[in-house]
Design goal:
Order of helices and strands: EHEEHEHHHEHEEHEEEEHEEHHEEEEEHE
CATH class of the largest domain: Alpha Beta
Oligomer: single chain
Strand order of the largest sheet: 13-12-9-10-11-14-18-16
Number of strands: 19
CATH superfamily of the largest domain: ATP-grasp fold, B domain
Low-confidence stretches: none
Strand content: 25-35%
Largest sheet: 8 strands, antiparallel
Structural class: alpha+beta
Length: about 400
């Protein structure tokens, strides 16, 4: 009998999941809030549903007689996917577990029970007026604070505060939280990393550590992720140890994780951790290239009732860079492409056409595209990164330039 797989979320980062399921001969249904997301054209059936609407998504999934439900690289779809699996008696991470990985306040409260040393100083505000009153105190050093919605994804609404725009930042954060409140936290200095793992029956299998760099205009938004063999082994081991402790405390038994941490001296601080693969095709394309292990295939194995097997080679044997494009603000007149070195290109995505507006990157949704290059040497991958950047240029309309 053909397996019937329901994939919650139809954005571009879910394409790898849809394609892998189709390659297995599965019938695939996709749901998404948008009417024509990238995955729709490759699915057997499409349902336009808000991925946060558990009841309606469950109703449709049940009527479709599915025998597997899965998502990847989409935080907001994780609880819905877990809820459907639980209601239909299918493999899943459990609804309560999903909440501990998507509700940042609950995440911190759970970790604090035995590992408060891994957490930043944090406070929940459920009222925007209460937060603004707190931030209006003359004793507050805004530059040492970061604000984040309790349950958003893709760094939406996340910002480091300053004395001039903290009111605007607070308003945006509350809007992105959809009424669930925001966290006000200390801004932790230091280098940022993410830890990619796959968990099977409670055993955490380490896959890679990512070094992360941020846009200068928003040091909460990634513009470059690297795998260049330059992370000291003592830092890598400390990150793996901290991450395994967090995963155990939050209760994930089987599935992907993407944990983000700051390292400052001997201090390791959890920023957040998700029960899904790293976005920007980290789990879909980078990890398989580096390790010859596919978290996407393992997720499908689990969803379809098989025990995943993790057999991954060292991610340090190859090299990769994920780079977001960063152009100055303006109205696009023309996008030009010179020769792009496709032999090193794992992914290329640039969502620009004439008359589009490019804006300064204030949140993740302002990022206009990215590419991934991979090679067997550090020098090759850095050269490939440089070549792709030089191959793409934009001509802006002079009379429509945005001054930001």
């Amino acid at each position: 009998m053909t397996s019937r797989v329901f994939i919650v979320g139809g954005g571009v980062n879910q394409l790898e999941l849809v394609r892998r399921a189709k390659q297995r001969g599965c019938w695939v249904a996709v749901s998404d809030i948008n009417d024509n997301p990238p995955c729709r054209a490759e699915a057997d059936e499409f349902y336009q549903i808000d991925t946060t609407d558990k009841a309606e998504t469950y109703r449709i999934a049940r009527s479709a007689h599915i025998n597997a439900v899965v998502t990847d690289q989409s935080d907001v779809a994780v609880p819905t996917t877990a809820y459907i699996a639980e209601q239909l008696g299918l493999p899943g991470i459990g609804f309560e577990t999903s909440l501990r990985f998507t509700n940042k306040h609950l995440m911190r409260r759970t970790v604090a029970l035995s590992r408060p040393d891994l957490l930043p100083i944090s406070r929940l505000f459920e009222s925007e007026l209460e937060l603004l009153d707190h931030l209006g105190s003359p004793s507050i050093n805004h530059q040492q604070l970061i604000i984040k919605p309790m349950n958003s994804q893709g760094s939406k609404g996340v910002a480091r505060l300053d004395s001039k725009s903290f009111r605007e930042s607070a308003s945006i954060a509350f809007r992105e939280s959809r009424g669930h409140g925001v966290l006000l936290e200390e801004f932790v200095e230091g280098d940022e990393f993410s830890v990619e793992t796959f968990v099977v029956d409670g055993t955490v299998h380490n896959l890679a550590v990512t070094r992360k760099f941020h846009f200068p205009q928003n040091d909460c938004i990634d513009y470059r992720n690297t795998y260049l063999g330059d992370i000291p082994l003592d830092i890598e081991n400390s990150l793996y140890s901290a991450n395994a402790a967090v995963v155990a405390l939050l209760g994930l038994k089987t599935g992907s994780t993407h944990g983000e941490y700051k390292v400052f001296g001997d201090r390791i601080v959890l920023m957040e951790i998700a029960a899904r693969g790293g976005g920007g095709n980290i789990s879909g394309k980078i990890i398989p290239f580096l390790t010859e292990f596919s978290p996407t295939e393992a997720l499908l194995d689990f969803a379809l009732g098989s025990r995943p097997t993790v057999s991954a080679s060292s991610y340090r044997s190859k090299y990769a860079v994920l780079r977001f494009f960063d152009f100055p603000p303006g109205k696009v007149e023309k996008v030009s492409y010179a020769h792009v070195p496709t032999d090193k290109l794992l992914h290329f995505e640039l969502n620009l056409k004439p008359r589009d507006m490019v804006r300064a990157v204030r949140s993740s949704r302002d990022r206009i595209g990215y590419f991934i290059v991979g090679a067997t040497s550090r020098e090759q991958v850095l050269l490939a990164e440089k070549s792709v950047l030089e191959a793409v240029s934009i001509k802006f309309s002079r009379d429509e330039h945005i001054d930001e």
